[in-house]
Each structure stands twice: as structure tokens, then as C-alpha cells.
What we know:
- There is one protein chain.
- The chain is α+β, with helices and mostly antiparallel strands.
- It folds into two domains: 59 residues, PGBD-like superfamily/PGBD (Muramoyl-pentapeptide Carboxypeptidase, domain 1, Orthogonal Bundle); 198 residues, no CATH class.
- 31% of the residues lie in helices and 16% in strands.
- It has nine helices and ten strands.
- The strands form three sheets. The protein has a six-stranded antiparallel sheet with strand order 3-10-4-5-6-7. A two-stranded parallel sheet has the order 1-2.
- Strand 4 and strand 5 form a beta hairpin.
- It is globular and about 65 Å long.
Amino acid sequence: MELTRNLRYGMAGEDVAWLKARLFALGLYPQRVTELTSDRFGADTRSAVKTFQAEQSLPVDGVVGPMTLAALNGESEAAACDGFDRGEIPRNIGSAAAGAIAADIANASEIRRSIVLDALSFAYDPKVPAEFPLSLYIRGGNLYNADLRPNVITLERIASGAKRQPEYYDGGRREMMERAVRANPSITGADCSGGVTGLLRHARVVKSGFDCSADGFYASSACKKIEQSALQPADLLHKSGHIGLYAGGGYAVEWMGGAYGCQLTRLSARRGWNFVKNRLDKNGDWTGFLQPAYYK
Length: 296
């Protein structure tokens, strides 16, 4: 079951019907059930969810979010890889994506493989639930600075950014970022082009002072336009004003926006986990595919 929204009291739909069937199979409803034949999330279901959360040592709020869903699915994607060789793919990437990417980068050049692995270490995969992104979206930030040190984000940096460009921090985004910094004082940050630029800097395929915008990459003679079918790991993905890195196996790494941070997304049916609204949001398709000359 793939979660596209948090499930809570009062909702209805096929996802709620699945939830109720799963809870019933686990024996978590009272003996006399009043609502199992409907697809509505009622009081019996809320009680069953709370019971399950308590048994699993999860926050008991009666809401089915990513952590509760992972437990209901009988797996923790961070650990459910028995018999699966993920190679160098970091543990913040779920087993399905890890397998697909590992198979693809096995045939990639060393530099392409190292760039992808670097990018993956910052990417949030909704299959491995967490409270905050692993790297924040910070307008104007580069993932690695000119001295090749990670761009660590502080509360002061967020306050400064919110003062200069409040539109990137409103609607609860600033508050989420500040909580993320408090939880992880070494958290990094970048915007979409700063993420890609930083990865290229860190791999030393460009000069340490190299910088480029999303549309600049698309217009650059150093980036050959190719068909989607020709993509290789560490190629670039573009849509107007936005850039990402192809990780392989049908997945991308992108600094998606203030509410999302750095995300692992599918190349098709592109979605990102919104940490402010706690839901999976749909996003538009990539329109351009680029093969950089930097790796040669």
C-alpha cells in the first residue's frame, strides 16, 4: 500500500477500506464492529489505529502517516532488506529504489556512481519514514561551498533567508525547517541548482567556484540534450526553473522546495513528501534531459 495522504477520522476512500481490512486482519477491532463494511474512517477505526500505534511504540494520535503505514505493511524500509544486497546505497533509501538504482549504477563509470551515491545520502525516500528532510531547500544555497565543505544550515541562516525572501519560508515552511535544524544541527541545505552544483563541485568535475542556475544548465553547451530513454546515472533532469539529478533505475534526486527539502522521486508519476502538510504531492513531469560533458 502506497500512502498518498495521511488517513484520519472522517475520511473515506479505497485507502481507508484497505486500512480497515488490515486492522481487522490484525484483530484490532472490538468484537462488535459497527463500521467495517463501509470505507469510512470512523470512531472504531481511530480506536484500532491508536491500539496498533501503542503496540508498535509509535506516537498514539489515531492518524495513519508514513511511520504507521510502514508498520502496518509489516516492514521498515530502512531495515527490511533481508537477503537483499543494496551495495553502497545508503540506508535512507528504501529497498525497492535501492535495488533499481544499484542495478543501474553497477554499469556506470566511477565518477557517475560516486555522484549518485553522494546525492542519495541527502535524499528523503517516503518509503523510509522520517520526521524531517535530510537536507533542506534553501534558496540561493549550494550543497557544498567553494571550500568543498557541506553547507550546514543554522537557525540564523533560516532567519536571514526568511527576512530577505519571505515567500520561500511562509505557510509553515520556516517552522518546519527550524525544527529540522534543532533535531539535526549538522543538516545541510541547497536549492535545486545549488544541489546539483554542489555535487559537481564535490566530485571535482568542475572548479570549486563553479555555479549555474537551473535554466543555465539547460542552455549550456556543456549539457547535451538527449532523449529520456538515453539517460544514464548522474545525467541531469530539467523543467523550466528547476533541475534534478538522475539517480538511475527510474529515480531522481532533487531539492524540490521549501516544504520538501531533498527528495528521492520517481522519473514518472513524480511526487514529493510535503513535510508541512504531511502528504504526498503530485508534481509536473520533467521536460528536458541533459548529458553533461563534465564527466568525460
